[in-house]
Amino acid sequence: MSRRVLWLAARFALAYGALTWLAAVTPVYAELERPFTAVAAALLRQSPDETRELSFERHEMSGTYRYELRAGTQGKRLERGMHAHGFVAVLFLALVAATPWLGAPRTAAAVGGGAALVLAVCVLMLMGDVVGWEAELRAALGQSPEGARPYLVPLGFVAGLHRTAAAGVLPIAYWALVTLRPGVLRG
User: Fold this and answer.
1) Cα–chain-centroid distance for residue 4?
2) Which of 47, 96, 98, 102 is least buried, going by the fewest C-beta atoms within 10 A?
């Protein structure tokens, strides 16, 4: 392994360690969940027969999701503790911090694209949670969980993001593709 690769790996480890420590002692993850929840809530499917509501309430360093389903005259609500979907954002920030300067235009484009990817991944993971919560509420209402479609698009593919390391791998792969030039790691 070249010195340059070791130097980049060490910079990333230091940046990621510092950022995860900061996230552990401040309400970073709880603050990140608020916009993710707002986007996921805005995308919920509504109809005259069914309404859905998703919210997030921060409590000090953590928070609680609230999801409510009203199907006709029946309604049910559940509360779940916060998941730190924002770990993807922390990982991406560590990648940015560890990368040598690319120049203003290239850095801005890479960070902008990465931020959009991080937002999409985090919101999709939360939307995957909502699909499970809807199935749970439907079962509690005596309805078939098979009809659990809180979003217009099927989200079965998202389950893998949440249960594996894939959510963290996506920003790493993106960052490597847009920032590394041939020969950068040689030396």
Assistant:
1) 31
2) 47
The pLDDT, as a whole number, for residue 182 is 54
Which of the 8 DSSP states describes residue 101? P
Q: 26-35 b/e with 16+ CB inside 10 Å = b?
A: eebbbebbee
Residue with tokens 């939307």: 127
Distances (CA, A) of 55 to 40, 78, 82, 170: 9, 11, 11, 27
How close are the terminal C-alpha atoms of the chain, in Å?
Answer: 10
Using CA atoms of 4, 8, 166, 120 in order, give the dihedral in degrees to the nearest 10: -120
Q: Which of the residue ranges 34-48, 82-96, 105-119, 157-171 would you say has the lowest mean pLDDT?
A: 157-171
CA distance linking residue 117 with residue 97, whole number of Å: 17
